[in-house]
Amino acid sequence: MPYVKSISVHATVDKSLRYILDHDKTESQLYTVSINCTTDAHDAYLQMKAVYEHYARDKYNSPPPLEGKGTVKAIHYIISFADSENVTPMLAHKLAMTFVRKNFGDEVQAVIATHIDKSHVHAHIIVNSYSLSGWKFYANRNTLRKARENINGICRAFGITPALNFENKGRSVDHYEWEQRKKGTSWKEQIRQAIDELIPTVNSLDELLQALEERGYEVKRGKYISVKAPGQERFVRTKTLGEEYTEKSLKTRILYKDIGTGNTIAEDEPSQLKAAYIAVIGDVRILAEQRKKVPRKRIVTAEYSADNDLDVYRLSAQLSVISKNNIGSIGELVGRINRLKAEYEKRRVEINALIDEHNRLVSLLEQVREYHVLRNKGELSETEKVRLSVCKQAVESAAILSAADADRLRERVETLGKKITTLKGNLDKTCQQYEVYCDIRDTYNIIAKGDYLSDLVEEERKRREQMNKKKKPSR
């Protein structure tokens, strides 16, 4: 039976729809279908948005809160089939459609796209979290278990056996793994390359993991992050991929990727905050040169050195932020963190108000269009007469009396849409600055306690101890 996993989509439903409906992945959308919406990514998003906002106390495109993920707007299911099953794209597509009907009923809004751009066929399904009648769909362990039970039953009806027998640890290597080994590409290297390619395109660790899942990787969050590539038998902890792939390193690589270290202006009497950073950067460089700390690379493809040490880079980037923003003390930094948090929430409320206004004007613009279509149609059905009356009332109430009025309304909608996009971009920058400031605060607290260097040395001691254990021959 195919493997089923789900991804909760909190703020990027439009992006997820564009991804699954990519022409290159679906044979020019040959294997795409929708239920109670269209297969056009933009239109499907608007239709799902209308249903969600009718029932939820939230906006479909509202920015996420500064802390936490926010509400689930949609659920992204991925059904993967092993090569050994010989499941054709058409059959996979049929199975996915049957699954959606069985699992969610006839009132669900869903887009189904079967991808054939990889060696294994896999179907993507994006389900709106509210049905047409207001039924709420949840994404948790119980609902995922139920989904897997349903797809298993469907596969049995179609005579399909399990794609992967997870209980049989002695199973043979599947074709995908055999092909990777033949090319000399290990699973770990494949995952490293995928992460390295995605880091420049994401703004947080959550976005990175979601992007991996959308590309067919399976991700588990627990004490450690574990990833499994398409066709791979077992999960791999990212910390085993190298020091650059631990959760802390990934967060650092993402958070500081666009900041840079800059040039710190020399001062006769630097503040206590800057002086602490200058001193610890020098000490960490010495540890790196003497190989007394864990060798984490900033640029993973370059040779390791003190100049290419991720911890040195992180501290230098933090010092650059402190200097560029004229942060004189830890108290001042904490004050800025509090102000940024308040500013973020204020802007978020402002954006949500603009989204309300934009939605109202878009609806009015659609009524203007429908009014002119119905008025010029001729003979109307009873339903169309009612619609014409409703649209006429809306048009007259808004004083849209001429083509020029309609053009001005259209321009207002476009202007407001651009303003919302700009404000969301500014909100993302505020969020990043908040996270950087919080990271500086937490780092300085460790430095002030005198634990920063000793923690690095102890971490390296444990790493070497673990390596020596692995080298000892078993008796």
Question: Can you offer a commentary on this structure?
Answer:
- The chain is an alpha+beta fold and 475 residues long.
- It has three domains: 3-164, BirA Bifunctional Protein, domain 2, CATH 3.30.930.30; 187-255, no CATH class; 331-439.
- The protein contains 14 helices and eight strands.
- It has helices at residues 13-20, 41-55, 89-104, 141-157, 175-183, 187-198, 205-214, 247-255, 272-289, 310-324, 330-375, 382-397, 403-449, 452-471; strands at 3-9, 32-35, 74-80, 110-115, 122-128, 218-221, 225-228, 236-237.
- Strands 1-3-5-4-2 form a five-stranded antiparallel sheet, sandwiched between helices. A three-stranded antiparallel sheet has the order 6-7-8, covered by helices on one side.
- A hairpin with a 6-residue loop joins strand 4 and strand 5.
- Helix 1 (13-20) runs antiparallel to helix 2 (41-55), helix 9 (272-289) packs antiparallel against helix 10 (310-324) and helix 11 (330-375) crosses helix 12.
- It is flat, with a radius of gyration of 27 Å.
